[in-house]
Amino acid sequence: MGLISNIITNYNYLKQDYTGIHINFYGISSFIINCIIPLIIIVVFFLVGSKIKDKLFGKSNGIINFFIKFAFGYISISSGFLILGMLGLFYQNILYLYYISLIVIALYPLNTLKNRLGIFPEIFKEYKKQFISNKLINIAILGFILIAFLRLIPPEVGVDAIWYHTDYPRLYLSSHSMMNINPQGKYYPGVTPTLSDMIYVFTISISAMDSSRFVHYGFYLLVVLEFLLLYKKRYPFAPYAALLFVTSPIIIRVSSSAYAEFQWVFCWLIAVFLITSKSKHDYKNLIIPSVLIGGALATKLWFLPFFGVYFLYILIINFSESKLKLLKLLTFSSLITFSIPLLWYLRAYIITGNPLFPTFWD
Q1: What is the dihedral of CA 285, 235, 72, 329, to 10 degrees?
Q2: What stretches of 226-260 show up as alpha helix (H) in DSSP?
Q3: Contact at 8 Å (CB) between 37 and 215?
Q4: Residue 193: is the preceding peptide bond cis (ω within 30°)?
Q5: Cβ neighbours for 301, distance < 8 A, ≥ 6 positions apart
Q6: Which of 19, 328, 335, 339 has minimal Cβ neighbours within 10 Å of its Cβ?
């Protein structure tokens, strides 16, 4: 009898373990939520950025303005987190009040919301149009985008993402401030400009840390769209550049981690597109690219050499201008550019005495 009961017990175990269907609804729901959060962030960034762009530069539509508005939203909202952090206001109630304020700003007035979001169907139509004209390349691009997306299913393995891109926001939230960090040892990157990590402050504060990876993946998709929708209009080989981008092993690896790479690349590509669209520059058409370069500098300290390239390009293109006008253009652009990461440099100076820390750090 003992043998028979043992066989029956083990048979039931094998049946349940190997043939039974077990669905982890918690895991599925968490994955869906992690997908939804970046979509909400993208919409809020766009709507807030639209308010800023339209107020300062007038209302305008089109593909380029979609990307500019989104970049403005990213820079302004993330800078708002920085200000709260520097003032020691990373308390739950204050952060939630900030989130509610952003939502109100984004949605108001409700009767114009449909028109303001009308650019999204246009983006889809434009993508569909270029997809048909380059089917094989776009299918290949989608294949690698899918591979990157599937890498979001396993847990985070990115060293930098675990080390500081999500670790530091947790530290800021636990201490309610961004000014209490010790810049020694493993904590030295926490003093450098990391505007992108301010988005991760939001995801961690709402107990959705894993969605930080999905946010970075969202910027990855935006960079691909810049190649396919923006640069394709000027350069026929742009889809090939997008394919080269998504097939790069390093891009595949970092696309599914909570890094700070695609945020600065996103701003940089728009700025390059804008400054290369003019044979000569004046004060007006240098403002937006300068702000975007500033956003990239606020995201990554090591972007400074790229600013040198940007500065040199303006110098060469406008070299035929009078020396006084050229000097004014370069000064004007530089002042706007460095006004964006200025608070980051001020923070580094207060904490370490070096605004460009860890540069020149022994």
Answers
A1: -20
A2: 238-247, 249-254
A3: yes
A4: no
A5: 192, 193, 356, 359
A6: 19
What does the H/E/C string look like for 260-316? Answer: CHHHHHHHHHHHHHHHCCCCCCCHHHHHHHHHHHHHHHHHCHHHHHHHHHHHHHHHH
For the entire predicted model, the pTM comes to: 0.90
For residue 159 the two structure tokens come to 């060293």
Vertex 64 angle, CA 59 and 65, to 5°: 25
Instruction: Give the span between the Cα atoms of 165 and 3, in whole angstroms.
Output: 57
Contacts of 311 (CB under 8 A, 6+ apart): 330, 333, 334
DSSP letter string over 36-90?
HHHHHHHHHHHHHHHHHHHHHH----SHHHHHHHHHHHHHHHHHHHHHHHHTT--
How far apart (Å, rounded) are the C-alpha atoms in residues 294 and 355?
Answer: 15
Provide the residue type at 243 as one letter. Answer: L
What token pair was written down for 56? Answer: 């300062």
Per-10-residue mean pLDDT of the chain, 362 residues long, equals 52 51 70 92 96 90 92 97 97 97 95 91 92 94 96 77 79 92 65 91 91 94 96 93 95 90 96 90 92 96 91 92 92 96 94 82 60
